[in-house]
Amino acid sequence: MKIATELFLIKEGVFSHSAEFLIVMNEVNEAIKCVSWNEKDKFCINPVQKGNGVVPIKNNFIKYLKDKGWKTETRMTLALGMNPGPIDAIKETSFGIFAVEWETGNISSSHRALNKIGVGILQKEIIGGLLILPTKKFSKFLTDRVGNYEEISPYFILYQSINIIDGVIGVIAVEYDDLDKEAPLIPKGKDGNAKKGMLLF
Amino acid sequence: MKIATELFLIKEGVFSHSAEFLIVMNEVNEAIKCVSWNEKDKFCINPVQKGNGVVPIKNNFIKYLKDKGWKTETRMTLALGMNPGPIDAIKETSFGIFAVEWETGNISSSHRALNKIGVGILQKEIIGGLLILPTKKFSKFLTDRVGNYEEISPYFILYQSINIIDGVIGVIAVEYDDLDKEAPLIPKGKDGNAKKGMLLF
DNA sequence: TATGGATCCATA
DNA sequence: TATGGATCCATA
């Protein structure tokens, strides 16, 4: 898979200028590159509107980071009063924990994911975090209403207005490498209103 | 329906000290009081876990505010790059527009609702906003995973950390007045429970 | 019980 | 096409 955009909403303090930060970003970049579908090293999607599910997409990404020593699916609490919830991948740096969320849920979940990273930094539970989500162009071929970069971007100003002097919040938009009408559709689960769709048969 | 908690995350500037602000809050309080189910002036819910739908709940609330001169379901843009989306109710004050969202969607939607109010104030599109949502105790009897006050509250610090010197962000937790095992379940979706039964075949 | 997610809906 | 839902799922 390829990276369409990479933007830092906040990039302040010693960690953001460290070699460790560069390594973190490099590992994330490589992990994204190895996300594939229907071909060995490329993500080729069948361009059916709302036709592809999202569950298996991030598998290779997670596996790559795990091999690099990241902890995956760790349950942690990023704010007082919050019960622990799973985070896709975290890396322990000497400046603190860095968290990465590959978001394939509803667009509103992307708001929660960014909020969580913001709160985690404010509370000093993490030193930074990244949200990875599809471009709008990519998301059109996925489950309806999954998060996409263009739709969340008008809210970036909110995070840029938070008083954080030591931390990193980044957003990465990812996209398929190629279209392929012969590629199998990514299977869908039966969550949410999926059953209603099944009524058509 | 009754108010369980009322909290202001931000309450700064001239509007927050004005008589108009008091009127706005008073109208919202009265509007909440007239939300009922199964009795004329009380909200009596059948205490079945995840048993009640949410769609009709806010009807009386919206109607009350409409009668008081508020505009309802107005589509507005609260940030650059955002397409207009409907807002439950807005009141035009001499300090700017005040927006109210009665949130009955997924908890992650509550994050978006607060984010939207925050961005709207930062961009000077509105002077303030309120998020109204059920207490956890109430939400247990509603559709699974609807927003609830307790679950969003750990994120409040995020909004309190934004640099806003003129604006209001408030959150109100609402709750049923009484339990009533004879009360009809609030229908889900358009066809209520009938559709759910049909799915079994 | 609690959290994060995945899926399709209603409507302008 | 775009936005804000409404609903049920998977798993610790």
TrEMBL record, chains A, B:
Give coiled-coil spans as residue ranges.
none
Q: Which GO terms describe its molecular function?
A: DNA binding; magnesium ion binding; type II site-specific deoxyribonuclease activity
* Any single GO BP term: DNA restriction-modification system
Q: Which Pfam families match?
A: BamHI
Can you say what this protein is called? Restriction endonuclease BamHI
Q: Where does this protein come from, organism-wise?
A: Pedobacter cryoconitis
